[in-house]
Specification:
The protein is α+β, with helices and mostly antiparallel strands. It has one domain (7-116): Endonuclease, Chain A (3-Layer(aba) Sandwich), CATH 3.40.960. The two termini are 26 Å apart. The chain has helices at 7-18, 22-31, 74-86, 96-101, 103-116, and strands at residues 42-47, 50-56, 61-66, 90-95. It contains five helices and four strands; from the N terminus they run H-H-E-E-E-H-E-H-H. Helices cover 47% and strands 21% of the residues. Strands 1-2-3-4 form a four-stranded mixed beta sheet, sandwiched between helices.
Length: 117
């Protein structure tokens, strides 16, 4: 079976898992081990040339967290979302402020999007 990612992407994903941001850690503590509605998520998964923050592989639901660095990378994020969407994934983005100030709403939105698929 052909891999959809390079060995460099896999190494980068491992590095990102070891160096999560605070908001990634908050979300991961709520998603890991099927803690959110018994939905299985993985973190920092390579897809093509990109590494997604969180993914449910069964329904191809990608959760992306956007910190302040994403303000300077709008075109990159748009290209990334387009690639993932064209590859059959549903991408849902959350701003770090939403996670800090409105975690319950973020988690509810993740469940809502999962149930739509």
């Amino acid at each position: 079976m052909k891999r959809l990612y390079s060995s460099t992407s896999l190494e980068n994903a491992k590095n990102l898992r070891s160096n999560q941001t605070d908001c990634e850690n908050i979300i991961w503590q709520n998603l890991r081990a099927k803690r959110l509605n018994n939905i299985k998520f993985r973190r920092q998964v390579p897809i093509g040339k990109y590494i997604v923050d969180f993914i449910n592989l069964d329904k191809k639901l990608v959760i992306e967290l956007d910190g302040s660095q994403h303000l300077d990378a709008i075109q990159y994020d748009n290209n990334r979302t387009e690639y993932l969407t064209n590859s059959g994934y549903k991408v849902v983005r959350f701003n770090n402020n939403d996670i800090i100030n409105n975690l319950e709403s973020v988690l509810n939105k993740i469940v809502e999007e999962y149930n739509k698929l």
